[in-house]
Amino acid sequence: MKNLFVILIMSIFISCSGQEKKKETQTASTPTVEDAWKVKLTPEQYEVLREKGTERPFTGKYWKHFEKGIYVCAACKNPLFTSDAKFDSDCGWPSFDQAIKGSVKYTTDNSFGMERIEVTCAKCGGHLGHVFDDGPAETTGKRFCTNSVSIQFIPAKQ
Ligand SMILES: [Zn+2]
């Protein structure tokens, strides 16, 4: 009877040690550039800047914002527009008649059955909006229709 008890204890011990958890194999691959953006940006910023989304008009924080300063890329802080270039277009998005020289890139965008010129940050490639030819005639005639979430305002020093 004593021997049976020992065998029982031994078999429990063996079966327990046999069930030692196998180490989980690492399946996570190297984080991609897009993964890094997902961490850095808010979901709204990611949707617009990286997936070329558009915020709803009249909802962004800068469409009626006319203080002195500069607007930088919300993702990489590249200076994009000055407040002097901003004008009240009533389209519901922040509108500028020009970008700071060399700060943006232009790409033809044929999505949604329209031919538009997409404007992206020259430094990080983030989507900013589109540029149209219906801006103020007395300056450049251009309207950089820009998403508020893609930019960040830095007030001019007093
Ligand atoms: Zn940028």
How would you describe this structure to a colleague?
With 158 residues, this protein is an alpha+beta fold. It has a single domain (37-155), classed as Metal Binding Protein, Guanine Nucleotide Exchange Factor, Chain A, CATH 2.170.150.20. 20% of the residues lie in helices and 25% in strands. It has a 6-stranded antiparallel sheet with strand order 3-4-8-7-6-5, with no helix packed on it. Strands 2-1-9 form a 3-stranded antiparallel sheet, with no helix packed on it. The longest helix has 17 residues, at 2-18. The model is unreliable at 16-24 (pLDDT under 50). Zinc ion binds next to loops.
List keywords for this structure.
158 residues, alpha+beta, Metal Binding Protein, Guanine Nucleotide Exchange Factor, Chain A, 20% helix, 25% strand, binds zinc ion, Met_Sox_Rdtase_MsrB, zinc, Met_Sox_Rdtase_MsrB_dom, peptide-methionine (R)-S-oxide reductase
